[in-house]
Specification:
This protein is α+β, with helices and mostly antiparallel strands. Helix content is about 30%, strand content about 25%. It is built from 14 helices and 22 strands. The strands form 6 sheets. Strands 13-14-17-12-20-18-19 form a 7-stranded mixed sheet. The longest helix has 19 residues.
Length: about 525
C-alpha cells in the first residue's frame, strides 16, 4: 500500500533522516508496527516567511510493498554508429541533450566544440584566475559543458512549456547527479560536481556511436541555396549531416558575425546588464532566516530573488537579481582578451563565506540609439563596449572594478574595498562614472534603494558591487519557426538554446536541445 503525506516541519526534523522517519510514522500512527515500511521525500521546499523557518515536505510511504523506481531514465542508448549524422555545434547543455535525443531517435550525433574537454579546460580557468590570461577558445563560457559546467548548477526553471523538466532531471540523475535534485524545489548540483556529470553525458554519446570533436571551431556554413548541408571547421574540414543544431551559447560572437556575413537572418535582442553584488553569507542568512547569528547545521545557505521597477528618462525598466549564488564565488568570465566580465558559481555544499548575485537592468534597443548603426548586432556591440570599459577601469588585467554598495548609490568613491571571493582581485573605481552607462547606473541605484526596503540590512557598505555582469543572455536572437523550430529562411538550420535566444539556464537549454533534435528528426530523420 502506498500513502502520501504532507508535513510542515522544522529544519532539524526535515533534514535528519531518522527524525524525519519517526515524524512520518507518528503522523500516520504506524509506530511499533511489524510492517515493512519505506519512507522517502518526494518534494521539499523552504518557507522562511514567518519568524521561524519551516520546511514543507511531501512524502511517499510504501507499506509492505516495494517502492516504485524514482527514475525511469537510464544510460542504455542504442548504437547509432552506422546511422545518418546530425551536426550539433556546441557542447553545452543544449548541445549535449540534443545529441542524446538524436541518438534516441536513431541519428548519429556529431558534436563540434571549439573548447576543450571538461578536465583539460581547468588549466585555462586557472590561467585566467591567477595569471589573467584569457584563452578565447577555452574559458568559463567555452568548452565541454558550456557556461553551465563551472557554475552553481542551478536546475530551477519556470519554462515548463519548453519540455519535460522531470525527464531532464532524471537523465542527470542517471548520469551521476544526486537524487535530491528530484526533491528540492530549487535544486542545484554545484560547480565541483558538474564536471564529472558532464563527462558521463559525453561517455553516453560516445558509447552509442556518436562523436564529440573538441578544439574544433566552426568557421563557415555549407549552404546550397537556402538549405544548410553542413559546416566547415577552422582546419578546412567539411562535415555534412541531415541538419545543423546551432547551440553555441550566448557568448559566441564570431558565430553571430558569421551569420551576418552569410546574410542569414538574425535579430538584435534586448538583454540585461549590471553588476555582481557581494555580501557576507551570514548577513543574507540573518535577513532571510531571521536569525541572530549562525543559521545552524540544518538550513542551507539562504538565497534571495529581487525585482524593482525603475524610471529613467520617462521609461520604465525592470532591475532584477540574476543567478544568485549562496555560499559562492565570483569568477572572471571574459571570452576574449581586452574585456572584463564577471559571473557567479557555487560548490555543491555552498559553504563559502560569501553570497553573490547578478543585479542587472533590462536594456531595450531604444535605450542605445547610437548603436543602431550596427543593425542586428547593435546590442552585441553595446555589450562589448561596456566590457572593454570595465577592463580599462580595472587596469587592463582581470582585476575587476568595484565599489562599496552605499558608496555607489550615493555617487561616492570607496576609500577601501572589502574582502572578496573574486580571485584576480579588485580595484576601487566610481562604477557610475567609469564603467556603467548612465542609464544603467541610475536604474541600479534606484533599485538598490528599493531592495534595501524589501530586505532590511541589504543596502549596506558592508557589501560591494563588482563589474560587469553582462552575459545574462544573448544580445542576438536567431529566429526560428514556432512549430518546426527551423530557421524561417534557411532549411536544415535549427537555432537552439541560450545563444539563439530561446533558453536561460541549464534545464531550459537542455529541454530546448531535446526539442530541436525532435523537430529536426521529425522532418529529416
Amino acid at each position: 500500500m502506498k500513502k502520501e503525506i504532507q508535513l510542515r516541519l522544522s529544519p532539524e526534523v526535515a533534514f535528519d533522516s531518522e527524525k524525519f522517519e519517526l515524524e512520518v510514522k507518528k503522523s500516520l500512527g504506524i509506530q511499533g508496527t511489524s510492517d515493512r515500511i519505506v519512507i522517502r521525500q518526494a518534494k521539499r521546499s523552504i518557507d522562511a516567511r514567518g519568524k521561524h523557518v519551516k520546511i514543507n515536505v511531501s512524502s511517499e510511504v510504501f507499506i509492505n510493498e516495494d517502492p516504485s523506481p524514482r527514475i525511469t531514465a537510464d544510460k542504455d542508448y542504442k548504437n547509432v554508429s552506422n546511422s545518418e549524422p546530425v551536426i550539433i555545434v556546441g557542447a553545452g547543455p543544449a548541445g549535449l541533450f540534443a545529441a542524446l535525443r538524436c541518438i534516441e531517435l536513431g541519428a548519429r550525433a556529431i558534436v563540434i566544440e571549439r573548447g576543450k574537454d571538461v578536465r583539460t579546460r581547468r588549466r585555462d580557468l586557472a590561467a585566467i584566475n591567477k595569471d589573467h590570461i584569457v584563452n578565447p577558445e577555452s574559458n568559463y563560457c567555452f568548452g565541454e559543458g558550456g557556461a553551465g559546467t563551472y557554475s552553481d548548477g542551478k536546475l530551477y526553471t519556470r519554462s515548463k512549456k519548453r519540455g519535460d523538466v522531470r525527464r531532464v532531471l532524471e537523465i542527470l540523475v542517471a548520469h551521476g547527479a544526486r537524487e535530491d535534485i528530484l526533491v528540492d524545489a530549487h535544486p542545484h548540483i554545484g560547480t565541483n560536481k558538474l564536471p564529472k556529470l558532464v563527462a558521463e553525458l559525453r561517455q553516453s554519446i560516445l558509447d552509442a556511436g556518436g562523436e564529440i570533436l573538441f578544439n574544433t571551431k566552426v568557421t563557415d556554413f555549407i549552404l546550397e541555396g537556402k538549405e544548410m548541408k553542413g559546416v566547415v571547421t577552422e582546419e578546412g574540414e567539411k562535415i555534412l549531416g541531415l541538419g545543423v543544431v546551432l547551440a553555441t551559447g550566448h557568448s559566441a560572437r564570431d558565430i553571430f558575425l558569421l551569420l551576418q556575413k552569410k546574410s542569414i537572418l538574425i535579430e538584435a535582442k534586448p538583454f540585461a546588464l549590471g553588476v555582481r553584488v557581494e555580501h557576507s553569507q551570514e548577513l543574507i542568512d540573518k535577513i532571510q532566516y531571521h536569525c541572530s547569528g549562525d543559521r545552524g547545521a540544518y538550513l542551507p545557505a539562504s538565497s534571495y530573488a529581487l525585482v524593482e521597477q525603475t524610471m529613467y528618462d520617462g521609461k520604465q525598466r525592470g532591475v532584477f537579481s540574476f543567478c544568485m549564488c549562496p555560499g559562492g564565488f565570483i569568477v572572471p568570465a571574459a571570452t576574449s582578451p581586452g574585456e572584463l566580465v564577471v559571473n557567479g558559481m557555487s560548490p555543491s555544499r555552498r559553504d563559502s563565506q560569501f553570497a553573490n548575485s547578478g543585479i542587472v537592468a533590462a536594456v531595450e534597443l531604444e535605450d542605445i540609439p547610437s548603436y543602431h548603426q550596427y543593425g542586428n548586432l547593435a546590442a552585441m556591440m553595446f555589450q562589448a563596449d561596456v566590457e572593454k570599459a570595465a577592463w580599462r577601469a580595472g587596469g587592463e588585467t582581470q582585476v575587476a572594478p568595484a565599489q562599496r554598495l552605499v558608496d555607489f548609490v550615493n555617487g561616492k568613491n570607496s576609500n577601501s574595498l572589502l574582502e572578496t571571493s573574486y580571485q584576480p582581485g579588485l580595484r576601487s573605481v566610481d562604477m557610475g562614472q567609469e564603467v556603467l552607462p548612465g542609464f544603467v547606473a541610475d536604474r541600479l541605484r534606484n533599485a538598490f534603494k528599493g531592495f534595501g526596503k524589501k530586505m532590511k540590512g541589504y543596502l549596506t557598505n558592508e557589501a560591494q558591487i563588482i563589474g560587469v555582469e553582462s552575459r545574462t543572455s544573448s544580445p542576438v536572437r536567431i529566429p526560428r519557426e514556432k512549430e518546426s523550430f527551423e530557421h524561417p529562411v534557411i532549411r536544415g538550420l535549427f537555432p537552439c538554446g541560450e545563444g539563439a535566444g530561446y533558453a536561460g539556464g541549464i534545464v531550459s537549454a537542455a529541454m530546448d536541445g531535446e526539442r530541436c533534435a525532435e523537430k529536426l528528426m521529425e522532418k529529416y530523420g
